[in-house]
Each structure stands twice: as structure tokens, then as C-alpha cells.
Amino acid sequence: MVDLSVTLGRLHLRNPILVASGTFGYAKEMAPLVDFTALGGVIPKTVTHAPRAGNSPPRTVETACGMLNAIGLDNDGLDHFLAHHLPYLRTLPTAIIGNIAGKTEDEFVQMATHVHEAGQGLAGLELNLSCPNVSGGLDFATDPAVTMRIVRRCRDVCPDLPLIAKLTPNVTDIQAIAKAAADGGADAVSAVNTFVGMAVDWRRRRPILGNVTGGLSGPAIKPLALRAVWRIAQLKAVPVIGVGGIGTLDDVMEFLVVGATAVQIGTANFYDPTASVRIATALPGAIASLGANRVTDVVGTLALRG
Ligand SMILES: Cc1cc2nc3c(=O)[nH]c(=O)nc-3n(C[C@H](O)[C@H](O)[C@H](O)COP(=O)(O)O)c2cc1C
Predict the structure, then answer these.
(1) How far is the CA of 305 from the centre of ligand 1 (A)?
(2) What confidence score (pLDDT) does residue 123 get?
(3) What's the structural domain count of the chain?
(4) 161 near 187, Cβ under 8 Å?
(5) Would the N or C end of the chain have less CB density within 10 A of its end CB?
């Protein structure tokens, strides 16, 4: 028997396979296709304090080996999430990790406070410090001081709730941001959110996305995400959840070996909604093939020479 359980600070998961925010709806949509008992956890779509309509269409476009999206955090707001989505989510036989984005530092703290008071059933809370599509919004996780302050202030109001800081790859030094999140008291960091890019219709000489730019995801970004995870893992300051282009068992194993303690499957859910369950089911075999009997024995075992 291979032990698949992982611990990231205060967060305990039955296995390291999570599904990523924004790619799995609020889980109900996926229920006919997915056996939730097979998953380590589900991270529903980001919620903001107030409802948001999102960006003008088109909001997604396919690219070579990936997609660009500029959804713009279309959601019905935190109160609606707590009243309408959480009662369903908390009945699911897997860990549910909420995901919030504030417009300001104060709004993050206000939302975290509200989750702490009314978010019974959540196994953890991911702070989306990194949505590139919110018009006029700041990418908080481009600044180590801001990252540390938001995490610390959310930590103060949620002393027991596992907190995950979701980082943007659109920075020069992601290690500095991860270190700041760790210093702020994050139980883990998720690396990475999407890479800012654009798509153009040259005949019309127009951007394809209504928002002009969008976030690149899918297999195209896997090597970039892998390197980001590897760099953060080398700090040994905070557990890392790898995300970016994961769609197969091999992808998951690569992220574990470079140092991810858990992973999130994102864009793959759109073209293969059962990928996460299939990967989770096959994971013990891959771990055992390395002669290990615990997933944690594989994490961060990349050999650089020899
Ligand atoms: C259509 C779409 C919507 C997304 N929405 C969110 C979101 O609401 N909150 C969030 O934290 N990340 C969001 N993401 C980012 C993903 O969770 C993930 O970090 C990113 O896509 C990289 O992983 P992937 O290549 O496996 O998709 C979204 C991604 C896509 C493609």
C-alpha cells in the first residue's frame, strides 16, 4: 500500500491531487463526471467581496498547446458563495479549499474574517494574490512586502485555517515572493497562476480578447511552472503546490520530484474532466515504481548530477 497523504502546514490531504480554481466551477457542474472521493481536494472559482460581471467577450482563445483567458473574476460575491455554494460543497467527500481575491489589502482581511466566521466546512483558504485579469487591479504578489502583509493580516484573523498564497509567475524573482508568503505565515504557496500574454487577429489588426491581454495556461506553460516550483522548493521555507500545464501522471510525478508536495490540475479539466481522477488512481503505481511507499518520499528528490 502506498501512502498518498500529504501535509502542508496545517493542511492535511488524503492525496496530493487537487483541481485548480476557475477550472472546475463550484464542483456541482462536474459531479456527474468526477468521483470526488478520488481527489485530494477541490478549489472552487475565486470569489470577490462584491459580485463581478467579469470582462467583455471574447474571454478565452485557444493557443498552441494552451489557452488564454481573461474571465475577469466573474462571480456572485462572497455572501452568495457562503449561502449558496458552500452548503453543497461541504457535503462532498473531499477537502474544499476556498479561494478569495480582494481589491485591496483591507478587503482581503475583511473577506478572510468573514470566511473564518461563516466558512465552516472549508479545509483551507487560498488567497488569489495573482489574478492578472482584474481591470485596474493590482497583482499583489508582485511585491514581497505587500504579499507578506496580506498573508500576515489574513493569518491574524484566521489563526487555525490553513492558508495558501497563490503566486503569479509574472515576476523576476518568485523566490522572494514565496519567502514573503512564508514569513507572513502561509501554510503553502501555489505556483503558478497564469502568464500574461495576448493573441492578435492580424487581418483585422485587433486583439482577440476583449480585455486585450489574458492569462496563458495549459501544457504550453508546464516547463515554466516546473522551474518556478523547483526554485521555490529550493528555499525549503514553505510547502509548494505545483500548478501549470499538468494533465498527465507523468506531469504530476515531475512536479513532485522537483519539490511540489501537492499539485493542482487546471486547464486539463476543460478538455478531459476525468483527468484528475484517473491520475489520482494511477499515482500509487508511479510512486511504487520508484521503490517508494509514501508520496512524500518522492517529493523534492530531483538529482542534479549523476
Ligand atoms: C479559464 C480559467 C479561469 C481561471 N480562473 C481562476 C480563478 O478564478 N482563480 C484562480 O486563482 N486561478 C484561476 N485560473 C488559474 C488556474 O487556477 C491555474 O493557476 C492556471 O490556469 C495554471 O494551471 P493550468 O495550466 O493547469 O491551467 C484560471 C485559469 C483558467 C484557464
Answers:
(1) 34
(2) 98
(3) 1
(4) no
(5) C
Is 131 catalytic? The answer is yes
Residue 118 placed within a domain: yes
Residue 67 belongs to some domain of the structure: no
Give per-residue pLDDT as tens, 46-78. 999 999 999 999 999 999 999 999 999 999 999
CATH number at residue 159: 3.20.20.70
Ligand 1 nearest atom to the CA of residue 193, by list position:
19
Mean pLDDT of 120-133: 89
**Higher pLDDT residue, 120 or 137?**
120
Q: Is the pLDDT of residue 184 over 60?
A: yes
Residue 64 lies in a domain: no
Tell me the pLDDT tens digit for each residue of 264-279.
999 999 999 999 999 9
137 domain residue, yes or no: yes
Q: Which has the closest alpha carbon to 295: 9, 17, 11?
A: 17
Would you place residue 130 in the very low, low, confident or very high pLDDT band (cuts 50, 70, 90)?
confident
Domain span including residue 111: 6-54+72-195+217-297
Selected catalytic residue, list 65, 131, 154, 158: 131
Degrees (nearest 5) of the Cα angle 170, 107, 50? 95
The HSE-up count of residue 179 (CA atoms within 13 Å, CB side) is 9
Q: Which atom of ligand 1 is nearest to the CA of 69?
A: 1
